[in-house]
Amino acid sequence: MSGPGDNERAHDEADQAAWRDIVDNFGDRAELDEQAPDERPAPAPEPVPPPVVAGAAPYDEAERFVPPPPPPLPRPEPKRAVAWAGLFGAPVVVLFMLVFQIDLPTVLDYLLVGWFVGGFIYLVATMSRTPREPWDDGSRI
Predict the structure, then answer these.
(1) Mind listing the pLDDT tens digit for each residue in 52-77?
(2) Residue 20, SS3 per DSSP
(3) 7 to each of 15, 18, 128, how far by Cα in Å?
């Protein structure tokens, strides 16, 4: 009589036998049929030329697209340029002086801090309060 677990045991035994066969043959090299020296492999097929599109002119290097020269970079107004220089230049000068241990007079220290704070305040005060366009979310393409 066969029970409900006999089919599973037979299936497990088949799996075990297959696994044992794989483990026993692990690392064996496959045997390849060696060709006789007088037999040569078949020649490779000749490449097929690309299809020709009717009415298409051949590519000419002289007719390639050359973009126009870019416009010159915009120059900020002088007050704005001084504010940006204070915002980025004053911390760089202070960092340079600290790294190379150069002692500045106290008045110059205060002037650099004032230039930084004044530049920041000027830039924030002159920012536009409205977006460039009403539906503008800030992204640019």
Answers:
(1) 676 666 666 677 788 899 999 999 99
(2) helix
(3) 12, 17, 81
